[in-house]
Amino acid sequence: MADTHMRQRPSDHVTLEVIGINRDEDPCETGLAFVRIHPDGSRDPVPPYFRVPANKVLVVTDVDWQYGGGQPRGVQTFRIFITGNDIPRVFESTITLNDSGEGGISEAMTSGFVVASGSGICVDTFPGGGQIQHVVLRGYLCRNS
Fold this sequence. Notes:
Layout: E1 13-19, H1 27-30, E2 35-37, E3 56-68, E4 75-82, E5 89-96, E6 103-116, E7 121-126, E8 131-143
């Protein structure tokens, strides 16, 4: 099968979604419960939730996120971390919320960030006060060499 414009096979492209992040749980302990969405619109049965396969890495190139219940016209910064000992931050995106305290954005990155097999992804917002409504990650899998 021919490679895509990103020089990746279509079967290696990944779209992940998580809806309604539970603020009472710590997603940085195990990573968020992302569900993979396939080209035909089907989703993998859950659990188990998506994890990067052994000997592969996930290159995340695009992030969509929505936020609600925040301070009207306030600023909110969405952050992504990779689970691990020091939980490094790999992505930030800042928006101004609307008059209802809601907002969202789609971000396309030039180089993206890489998630290794066995690692998880966690998110938060600053200053917070509302809730992340959903997160969509797009990218591709490739061999970890």
